[in-house]
Amino acid sequence: MRLFKAILLLMLVVSIIPTLMVGWLSVSHTRELLIRDAQELAQERVKQLRLKAESFLEDPTERVVGLSSVPGGFFTLPGDTQRLHIAAVLNQRPELLALTVFGADRQRLPGLQAFAVHDMAPSGVAEHEERARALLDEGLTGVRYSDVVASHGGAGGGPVVTLAFPVGDPVQGYMAADITLAGLRQMLAQERVGSTGFAYLADRHGRLITGGGDLGAVGDDVSKRLPLAHLLKQREGTPDTELFHVGNFGEGRDAVVSAYSVLPEAGWAIVSEQPVEHAYRQVETMERRILLGLGGAILVALVLAAIFSRNLTQPLKTFIATSLELARGKFGVEVHLKQKNELGELAQTFNYMSKQLMAYDMETRGLYESLEKGYLETIVALANSIDSKDAYTRGHSQRVGDVAVEIGKELKLTERELRQLQYGGILHDIGKIGIPENILCKQSRLTDQEMSLMREHPAIGDAIIGPVTFLGSVRACVRHHHERWDGTGYPDKLKGEAIPMLARIVACADTFDACTSTRPYQKAMPLEKAMEILDNLSGAQLDPKVVLALRAVLAQRGVRLEGHRQPVKLAS
């Protein structure tokens, strides 16, 4: 119960103190501060949006205007070079949809018109040229922008603006380009003003260019909206003045906190609107004060919680460390706690469990070792029954098992696979029990019929150990140790990687022992001569990777050969 009371007290302290502090801070703020903070936030938002919109419009504009200042003068360049410059500008600025060059007589120059094929249809090119001619007819003295339109000739129907400017003094010609405002539209659509507000862009006549909210399509009249109507009225007397304003517009539920500014080059208005009832709940100053209060409450709560949690965290750390030791197999470890509460009782229970696990583990290990010893004795007895039929192969099965295990270690096999190699090496010739002794012990070369019978011993061995469940994993060694890497072996003519890895290792160890032990038809070979033969068989009869592993074993630690008590190594 002491632990429960401590946790309950901690929860009460942590929850009540922050609640009281937040309530006190919230009541202490005045409406005047909220209004000022909301308006400052709207003002800063519009400034940032204006900078983004100006940058979006200025970057492609500067790129197009840059054509007029190419070295030597654009209109003095060869036609091919002029077209290359135009194509380069279109490729570098994806916002540019079309670019047309006009002569001093305001007629389009042949071959000096380019457009984005994938973003602009031929009808859109015609519309572009029409807007450009309208700008030229106004008598240009610098860069001028047309009214924004919704392009229906491509570009997804997004807002498009045309710019035009004269080149040279006196004028040598004119250039015009279409800029898609799709990126600007996407930027404004994603701009969130609180939870319900939005920002939009309108031209000098009060028509919508793009923006968030459900204001309508490009070109729709939005001049009746209160912030924009206020802006248009301000511009009636001074149309070229750079305007900026922030304040409240409207009354009641329709009241909004709004800020607007003007892009001087294009004359567009950027407007931000947010309902008053939402703006005054989400001002930055309130959030900072609330966070300050919560921070102070959390600090107090943490100090108090540290006092109560110390007696909880230290025992838990001990439990964690001891549990990890137990999980790693160190049975019998204990947790030493002097506390007389639920944690103390848990420690006693844990210690009892650990001791019981240690007892079960010792008992299980004894049973496992006894069972494994019985398995090995059974396997050795089976191997001895083979060796007893042929004095020349006595000890062969045991040596094959030992060599196979060494190769397996070199190939980084698991402990389980090494045990299977040991069993498989000892039992690989168990099928010879079923071969007549006159064939098995024959001193001369076997006839074809006798050889056919001898080649049945892998299948016979497989049939013998098949019913023995615990030997199921070594059947591949018994059945396939005479398969060849090139697929000409027996009994199943497996080839390459299709031969089980353990069988390939036993086959190599079997061949090696046959070369290094005395048989009726040959004397034991020196280690170097035996490895020379295995190298020749590599890639034909034996797996090259296994042969290399055997060579590494012989060079590093050696293996026990017939007639040798100590491992024999290859000469370095």
Distinctive features:
transmembrane, HAMP_dom, single chain, 11 strands, cell membrane, membrane, Beta-Lactamase, elongated, Hypothetical protein af1432, 572 residues
Tell me about this structure.
This protein has two domains: 263 residues, PAS domain (Beta-Lactamase), CATH 3.30.450; 167 residues, Hypothetical protein af1432. α10 packs across α16, α11 packs across α16 and α16 crosses α17. The strands form two sheets. Strands 1, 2, 3, 4, 5 and 6 form a six-stranded antiparallel beta sheet that branches. The protein is elongated and about 125 Å long. The chain has 572 residues and is of the alpha+beta class. The mean pLDDT is 81. 53% of the residues lie in helices and 12% in strands. The two termini are 74 Å apart.
List the topology elements.
Blueprint: H1 2-28, H2 31-65, H3 79-92, E1 96-103, E2 108-115, H4 122-137, E3 144-145, E4 149-150, E5 159-167, E6 173-180, H5 182-190, E7 198-202, E8 208-211, H6 226-237, E9 244-249, E10 256-263, E11 268-275, H7 276-279, H8 284-327, H9 342-387, H10 396-410, H11 415-427, H12 437-440, H13 448-454, H14 457-465, H15 475-480, H16 501-516, H17 527-537, H18 544-556
Antiparallel strand pairs: 1-2, 1-6, 3-5, 4-5, 5-6, 7-8, 7-11, 9-10, 10-11
Helix pairs in contact: 1-8, 10-11, 10-16, 10-18, 11-16, 16-17
